[in-house]
Every structure is written in C-alpha cells, then in structure tokens.
Predict the 3D structure of the following.
Amino acid sequence: MNLDLSGKKAIVTGGGRGLCKSIAEGFHESGAEVVLVGSSAAAKETAAGMDSSSARVYGVSGDLSDRESLTGIFDECLALLGGEVDILVNGAGVQYRCDAVDFPTEEWERILTLNLSSVFFLSQLAGRIMLKKQYGKIINIASMTSFFGSVRIPAYSASKGGVAQLTKALSNEWAPHGINVNAIAPGYMATRITADLKTSSPEQYREITSRIPLGRWGTGEDLKGLAVFLASDASAYISGAVIPVDGGYLGK
C-alpha cells in the first residue's frame, strides 16, 4: 500500500490553523509540497514553521469568498507549485449560530459563498489541470451536518449538505478521467469554531459528548491518516465517498 506523497503538489484551503492545518502537516510528513491558503497571516506563519528543504510549504493569504480574489489566489498557489497541482483540499469554512427565524441574510450568504461556492470554483480550476493529465485527488471537508440538520446552524448545515452532493456530482464526471473526488465528514471536533458551544449551549455540549462512543471530541490528529490515504494512490478505487470521522457518533 503506497501512502508516500513524495513529489506530489497539494493546495490546502483553511490550512493556516485548525483541522486543515493538521491535514497539511500529514501531507508534508508524507513528502508532499504544500501551499496553505487562509484568510489571515496565519497561513504564511504556519507555512514558515512547517517548511523544510525536503518538502517545501508555502502560505497564501486571501479572501476565497470573493470570486475574483479566488481565481487570483489559485493562480498564486499554482505559481508556487510550478504550474501543477495533484491534490486539492477544500477546507476553508465559517460558522454562525442563530435561531433560524432570526438568521441574518448576510450571514447566510457569507457562509454559503465560502463553504460551498468556493469549493466548486476551486475544484473547477484544479479540475481543468487534473483533467489534462488524467490524474488528481480532490478532498472536500464535509461535516456531520452533511447527514443531519443539527440546530441553530441552518446555513452551515445547508452548505455542508451541498458539499456532500457536490462531491458525488464531481466524482461522477471526473472519476472516469483519473480524478478521485471524496469528502471527509468530521464529527464533533474540538476547534475554534466549536469552542463557544461549551458556554453558549452547555446542555447540548454534554448531550453530544455522551453520545460519542469513543467518549471524546475529535482533534486534527484524527483526520491525518484518512487525508493522507485519500490523497495517495492507496485510495485509487475510492471516489464519491463521504467518510465520517466521528468517534462512532453516527452509529449510535
């Protein structure tokens, strides 16, 4: 089983921190050249700390929710990678908690644009390159809310449901051309986005934790192995899958 990513070129959005930082670390540890994309200076700072002579890591900052900026960001990533990309991880995302009846229009549009639309447009750009060489790995970051609606996060749930279906749609078109398109659906993970749940909804936090058979919330380390597997040739016959990493939550 070949999990070696040496010589592969990867773009990881949301890679400056959180779960996708861990995924980028996994790629780097497996030998890939990686560009981290983030909305702040954290992407460049993280890249500088991860970079090595054996496998280079670069950082690019920009706003993926802006269509024109997105194209420029992708072009910048491509230039750093010498005009090639083998692996794309669409992990950039935002969250907003509010009762549906009061949910602000601007938050709905902001979340759908970044969490879903940018996933399609980046995949489209990468897909054009991958189709020419008949090879590529696209990994989208879905969510438990790709399977159920949750509460007080209607825009996030809608966006992640869309990511799951987009993953299948792109796989249907591109798998025959050597491009594997899959999604990782993290369960309840201890991240910056979910940190507020402990204080804002303590009862919900306790209920969630009690339902996880492994008895804990996940971390970025829990995603590394699957991400490297899906980015490698070991997963050549897997496409269109939405794979939970949830501590057993969905099975209970």
